[in-house]
Amino acid sequence: MKDELKPIKRSKQLAPLSREHHDGLLFAWKIKQGIDNHTPAERMRKYALWFWKHHMKPHFYQEEKILAPYLPDDNAMKKRLKEEHDHIRELVIGLDEETGPDKQHLIILSDLLNQHIRFEERELFPFIEKLLTPEQLDKVFTELEQHPVSCGEYEDEFWVKKSNNTQ
User: Which of 57, 108, 134, 144 is 20 to 30 A from 36 via CA?
Assistant: First the structure.
C-alpha cells in the first residue's frame, strides 16, 4: 500500500504562518497556470511584484525576525531558511529589473517558493513545535498577531483560462 500524505496538524501558534503558506502555494500554482495559459510574462511579473510587496516580504519578516531567533545560530534549518529567503528575494529583484520579464525566471521563482514552503511545513515547523516551550510558542503567536499579513485580492486573474482565449 502506498504511503499517503496526511494533513499536517499545526499548533495554533504557528497556524497563521501555515495559512500564509497556503497563499504562497496558491501564488506558485497561479504562475504555473499563467504559463500553461500562455499569459504574457509582463502580466505575471506585475502579479509577482504585487505578491512580494503585500505577502512574501512581510511573511519573510515574520519568519526571520519573530521565529528564527528561537533557533540556535548553528542550526542547519535556520541556515536553509535564510538562504532560501535570500534566493527568493534575488529572484524577485531580478523581476524588477529593466531587462523585462522572463517566463523561465517566473517558473524558477514559483518552484523555489513551492519547495521552500514544503520544507518549512514538513521539517522546520515540526522541529520548532518540539523545540519551543508552550510559553515561547505563545509569545511567537502574540508577535505574529502584531505583524499580520493580509494581501487582499489581485484583480488581474491571468491564471483563469479564458474560453475565447483573450489573453
Answer: 57
